[in-house]
Design goal:
With about 240 residues, the protein is α/β, with parallel strands linked by helices. It has eight helices and eleven strands.
Length: about 240
């Protein structure tokens, strides 16, 4: 498979190595200093582009890739609120859009996080019947991560809110009992820790995912690219892993 990389930071370099180890070819690498390469024949030859950049750049990168007929796998977060409807429209077939674009998007590509998310959804469904338990979340990341809460924490929180009637939404720094509180910690070089706690007067139930490195995220992104090459439309982790 021919892969283009959009964004060449730590994650991009790790994805490159894993893709090469799995027998794929990197045909184009685009970073902030060579945006003109979106118009190159090399980029257009890619089966899939894997995109890890900043929230303000992600949607524009999708448009540039789609304009060249290249499918996109993206782990960029922070663009959904402003551009989510546009992306869904672009990736949905219709009379006016007979050849929809393709985007595989996930806030976290780790296989372990995919399993953790399935457990999180199932636990929330169970806890919906036990109102004596209040729920809160905490996420910890390295000091270089400026946004908060993390995209993964938001996804986990949305899954809880969807399955737990007593929570209407999530928020940071809240004491509102109807809101799911998310706390964030930034320290050291922590790749990512996400914890969900259900607490009652009688006991505490906790589930945690603790990433040892970014390697799991990078491998998941390459697996998603392999899946995306054979599928189209708006794709997610739940399409690839049927938990």
């Amino acid at each position: 498979m021919k892969i283009a990389l959009i964004g060449y930071g730590k994650m991009g370099k790790m994805i490159e190595q894993i893709a090469l180890d799995r027998g794929h070819e990197i045909v184009s690498i685009i970073d902030i200093d060579n945006q003109q390469d979106f118009d190159s024949p090399a980029f257009a030859s890619a089966d899939v582009a894997i995109e890890f950049t900043a929230p303000q750049a992600a949607y524009g990168n999708y448009l540039k890739a789609w304009a060249k007929g290249v499918k996109v796998v993206s782990g960029s977060t922070g663009w959904m609120k402003e551009h989510g409807d546009d992306v869904r429209k672009a990736c949905t077939p219709s009379a006016l859009n007979p050849q929809p674009s393709t985007l595989f998007w996930a806030s976290n590509f780790s296989i372990g996080v995919a399993i953790f998310s399935a457990v999180n959804r199932y636990l929330a469904k169970i806890m919906n019947e036990f109102p004596q338990y209040d729920v809160e979340m905490e996420e910890t990341h390295h000091v270089h991560k400026l946004d908060h809460p993390s995209g993964t924490a938001i996804t986990l929180a949305e899954e809880i809110v969807k399955n737990l009637d007593r929570k209407t939404d999530w928020a940071e720094d809240t004491t509102d009992p109807q809101l799911l509180r998310i706390d964030h910690i930034r320290r050291g070089e922590v790749p990512g820790i996400h914890t969900v706690r259900y607490d009652s007067e009688a006991d505490l139930i906790t589930i945690t995912h603790d990433a040892h490195s970014r390697k799991g995220f990078a491998l998941g992104a390459v697996l998603a690219a392999e899946y995306t090459a054979q599928h189209q439309g708006l794709l997610t982790i739940s399409d690839m892993f049927k938990f």
